[in-house]
Recover the amino acids of this structure.
């Protein structure tokens, strides 16, 4: 089996949403595919009306294939402080033509305000490792874990784009989607994430490949030295990050993966991607797409980095592949 689904950017690439079919007859919900978490949760008819703000909701009662997973609950919180929780159904889930029957679909009974405000997203589809799924008392598998045994190859690829539709493919590598060769590097999934080590300016950086995080968060030393090249750039405590004049031309940001003998491959994030967004309506000052990881405790290669590459999430061989495009 295989699957292929479009990933559409929202709000200046802050997130990417994919249409997912749930239940019988199919209910299509736009979900944020997140390689940094492992719960598939949705706005539902169980979500209080006061917390639903235009989102499409899942109605288990109108799906003939839905079965309540009795006694199961879930509760999750994310790096930006957002959170959600609820109950669990098993139902049929289809992504880009790839179907998993009896997928745990986590229906929200509570969502925090940033989810209510995000009117275009009906929830998240976790693609990290099932070891960090939050369903209790019996942990549930991710869509990818359930699909893997049926896939032509035990992998999925992420091809996110700047201000344009990209694609997630499951079970195969589309050779027309990248240029040059794919450089592979081992994955450390001990924390449940797609952890890997890259080299930035000769310094090894261990972080995670996280499609659910908008920006790049790296060690202070690397971030400080990057912004030292931008006149007028400074750390601004009120914005809790590096800002600079919006007219600045930003240097490209490169990192190497799969260093080893063959020299590995270099991913180059265009400077224009690092000029993330204005901090206010005047458009004078802009917020950087590269920020420090010092308040996080882990380095994160988020969408700003991922959309500069074609990335292979290889669950069979526990490796990450990176290619230019
Ligand atoms: C340690 C960490 C993160 C780890 O992940 C993180 C982060 N970075 N983007 C996101 C997230 C997103 C992506 N996301 C970010 C957005 C921002 C910055 N803005 C202004 C909007 C409107 C956003 C939307 Cl709609 N979507 N989503 C949907 C969720 C649930 C996120 C959770 N955390 N998160 C932050 C800000 N930090 C400090």
């Amino acid at each position: 089996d295989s699957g292929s689904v479009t990933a559409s950017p929202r709000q200046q690439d802050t997130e990417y949403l994919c249409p997912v079919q749930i239940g019988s007859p199919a209910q299509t919900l736009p979900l944020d595919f997140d390689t940094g978490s492992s719960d598939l949760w949705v706005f539902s008819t169980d979500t209080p009306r006061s917390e639903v703000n235009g989102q499409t909701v899942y109605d288990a009662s109108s799906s003939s294939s839905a079965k309540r997973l009795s006694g199961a609950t879930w509760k999750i919180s994310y790096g930006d402080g957002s959170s959600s929780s609820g109950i669990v159904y098993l139902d049929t889930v289809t992504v880009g033509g790839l179907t998993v029957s009896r997928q745990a679909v986590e229906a929200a009974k509570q969502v925090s305000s940033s989810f209510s405000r995000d009117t275009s997203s009906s929830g998240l589809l976790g693609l990290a490792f099932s070891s960090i799924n939050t369903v209790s008392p019996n942990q549930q598998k991710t869509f990818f874990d359930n699909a893997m045994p049926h896939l032509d190859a035990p992998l999925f690829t992420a091809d996110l784009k700047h201000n344009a539709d990209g694609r997630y493919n499951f079970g195969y590598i589309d050779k027309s989607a990248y240029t040059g060769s794919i450089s592979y590097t081992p994955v450390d999934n001990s924390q449940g994430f797609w952890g890997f080590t890259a080299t930035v300016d000769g310094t090894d950086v261990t972080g995670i490949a996280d499609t659910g995080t908008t920006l790049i968060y790296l060690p202070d030393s690397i971030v400080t030295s990057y912004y030292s090249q931008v006149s007028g750039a400074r750390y601004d405590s009120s914005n809790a990050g590096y800002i600079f004049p919006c007219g600045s031309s930003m240097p490209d940001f490169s990192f190497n993966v799969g260093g080893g003998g063959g020299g590995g491959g270099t991913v180059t994030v265009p400077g224009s991607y690092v000029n993330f967004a204005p901090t206010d309506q005047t458009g004078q000052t802009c917020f950087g797409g590269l920020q420090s990881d010092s308040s996080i405790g882990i380095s994160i290669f988020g969408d700003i980095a991922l959309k500069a590459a074609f990335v292979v999430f290889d669950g069979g061989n526990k490796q990450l592949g990176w290619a230019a495009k």
Observations:
- The two ends are 25 Å apart (CA to CA).
- The CA atoms of residues 14 and 157 lie 19 Å apart.
